[in-house]
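Project standup — Tuesday

K.O.: blocked on the structure for the chain from last sprint. Re-posting the sequence here as requested.
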Amino acid sequence: MPGAETTSMLARRRMQDLASTRARWALWGVAIASVLVAAALLFESIAPTRGRGIVQRSWRPRGETCDAAPEDATREIVRDAVVLPRERARRCITWSAAFVTRFRTPVRFEIETNRAFVLRVEGADVLHASRGETEVHAHEIVLAPGAHPIELALTEPTEPGAYLRVHTLLMNGARPWGSRPVDLDEWHVSASSDPAPRTAARTIAFALALVVALSALVIARRGSIRDAWLTDALLVFALMSIYFVPRALAAGFSIDELAYVKAGETYVANLLAGDFETAAWRWNMEHPPVAKWVYGWGALLGGWGGARATAALCGALVVTLISIAGRILVSRRVGLVASALLACTPHFAGLMRTCTLEAVTCVIWAALLVVLALWMRDAGTGDHVARRAHLPRERALRALAGALPIFGTLARATSVWSGPLSLLAACLVSRRRGQGGLWIPWETIAGALVAVLIVYAGWPWLWSDPREQFGHAVRHFTDYLPLEWYRGHLHHPGRGYFTHAFLATTPELHLIAGALGAVVLARRSPSYALLVVASFLLPFAQSLSHVRQDLSRYVVTAWLGLALLAAIGTDALGALLAKRSERARLVPAVVVMLVATFGLLRAEPYPRTYFALWTGGAPHVAETRAFEIADWCEGLEDATAYVNAHAGEGERVEYRTSCRDLHDPLRDDLIEHRGAGAQWVISQRFAYELDQHEAALASCTIAHDTVSSGVVVARVWDCR
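H.V.: unblocked you, prediction finished:
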């Protein structure tokens, strides 16, 4: 019978191997299908050549001139910077569009062509030229609020060698302020043949297809298809996406994010159009481009909502990466608790729902933490033979340790402090291997150099004068001296500002648990403790810069290290309680999360109005003007919605706020008004303008208040 048992075991093993093989092939199929879905979504966004919304009408000539479009004219969407290919020779072409602006906006039209053309704005000829050599014809015009029909027509058939390039440039500075979109395409929106609007669903589907493809590939290449770490990571990412994305899509406009999204969409549109002229890339020059490229692809797929969804998915990815880092450094439970503690940190949650540079910066910083944790863990693995088995992966980790700080810095300059973190990890690895001192592997140096070359080659506005343009970005952080309400005075905050602001905007139990976690980790593994504590402290080196403003936004990455330390601290307390009852193990973590979640819910939908209890809360901060409150235009969308619902037909609305150009659209019949005579006035807390306007509005009545964390962040006045 032993032979029969052996045969049975062999048969069972063959069946298991066959099932495993079939499962892997199925996973490969899922991966390939997901890649095809992602490619189809991307192709759908590019193939219709939606570009920036200029409508092209083309038809075969019936005469020598093109005065009117025949009835059989075909239409297609093209980008507003395009060189006509030779195969379109002998076609008469007319572009028509509607330029939408919310207030008076100076615009410069530049038409570079060697053909006769006419440019019409609201039916009137404003620029024309006869056929001649290729040259730039320019015209500047100030557009009033509203939609303005624009038409550009070639007045003769094209021939081989015909050339046409069109630029529309806002003239009120490098930032694209002013023509604020309801949907991003309304910067240059087609009034006559507009396809279905792009939605955030396409961006979300694209991201999920890539996640599924990557996950299937990882699992298929493993010996087992039951890798718990990947299951946990996917679960965390899914839950965080469900949490972040709807809130990001519902959030109102915030300062700066429109500039970043428009710049990113311009970069992507230029790339797809093959337009590498320097002038076409000069958008939002005061910040490096990496984060804006990310939002640009999100906007390409899903418009404004797609860009917002991209920011939210970046936030979900940050939380997921922190769960992986905690698992590598300590345990699975610590990783999951760390992700939960990070997600319920109020200001972090608020920053992950808007298209700012912080979301992408945090992704790169969190990825660097995972890379360094893996590098240090592999360096301490067994003997020389065991380490050699990890050598290929370790070389990749070394290269990433050099490249990620470069990419992070070129997403936001404040990530320059991640460079010392990689150097610290290299030093700790050297000590673990008994080499002593600081040993920087050649792969790390090579990774940094390759990252510099990649970013330099793809840097948008470095085609003409790299030194001058990079200096422009540097001067933004060296010459700019911001003023802010801090400790009751409007002044430039001192070097202790970021430390004070971080303590004021972080739940107290997070800080207490983090301090305990640092002690516990130092006793378990001094090397890991140095790495995590350094990741928490290094962002505060930003205090050395002149740019000290916006509460904890410039040190947002410190919350990543704090979440890890706090998770370790609560886990240590849970281990003590588990000696009496195993059910009590998670009690400390749950208590810390509940306290933070209560503050977060009270601040919703504006988490950046949260202040810790020791400050007296947001009401005391507002009363004493200890910090700015509602500095990102919080509450304006709610106030605007109230006016849209209650204002009479044709009434005038005034915005008395520094954020007046970033509000949601008023009802079509309402008139945005500046100066005396408005029936409705909207004021806001930012820079305490709400208080400043109260005396001037004494004859008006308060119609509506938008309250967050117990503070009025926006107010509607009825002055009828």
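K.O.: great, moving the ticket to review. The chain has a mean pLDDT of 78. The radius of gyration is 29 Å.
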